[in-house]
Amino acid sequence: xxxxxxxxxxxxxxxxLDVLQESAEHLDAEAVYARAKAxxxxxxxxxxxxxxxxxxxxxxxxENRLGEEHAHFEATRSTPHYHFTCLRxxxxxxxxxxxxxxxxxxxxxREKIQLVSVQLLLSGYxxxxxxxEE
Amino acid sequence: xxxxxxxxxxxxxxxxLDVLQESAEHLDAEAVYARAKAxxxxxxxxxxxxxxxxxxxxxxxxENRLGEEHAHFEATRSTPHYHFTCLRxxxxxxxxxxxxxxxxxxxxxREKIQLVSVQLLLSGYxxxxxxxEE
DNA sequence: TTACCTGCAAAGGGTTTGCACTTTG
DNA sequence: CAAAGTGCAAACCCTTTGCAGGTAA
Lengths: 134, 134
Known about the structure:
By secondary structure, the first copy, chain A, is α+β, with helices and mostly antiparallel strands.
């Protein structure tokens, strides 16, 4: 998979991928760095960024911008899914619906688009944080 | 609308909103600044950023991150719409589908979510830029 | 062996902020 | 007149890059 482009599978790259695949959450570069560093104290944040870009290009990792913040990453999963972020507590809820898939599919067919990535991000207030009309 | 929170309607704010409402494209802060500056040479980029944040909060302007780049802004329109960005030529195609709306609606109802914003961003290659399997 | 990769530290670029001055309401 | 907003320039923060020394294949 990585080898296709003359890319090497170094221990740093394996480590970054492991960190993401073992995590249920969406980690930002700093968080991946922290977890990787716990197992390889020599690893640098520059390598983390370079590796994340590489893994993303290889399709092994997806980048999304939750909230309005900086980038977050997660290991690619078999089924596509979308995100909701609570503006108050920061909780992220994932969801998936075939309707969205179908709508996107038909748009791409109609426009002759070759789809590479899909990001659907909702934001607002979750059940616990919402304020009823005050 | 702005007045609700003791906010003032200054000429700079009006100008920034005008710029966005008159533009068909998605402008980034720098572009809004350039166009505003043409009419008010004294305006500063800091005011543009502060104003964009304010207008967004007021619901008059929407922010989206097209491509993977920095923020772009557009005046809020009556109907929600989504974006596709071509990774090669940068072209942005807008689209809308009730299916997506419905799916989002039902997710929010189920999760008791108070929705504030929706961003659906597709990326890939447009009809003109796609490379058939090489 | 040799292209590719890493760590370090410095640079980059979009965005935000502190402060003194101006303006709106 | 008081509170809010502006312009300027410096600060910020996430991310990228140049380079000299390592390392996978």
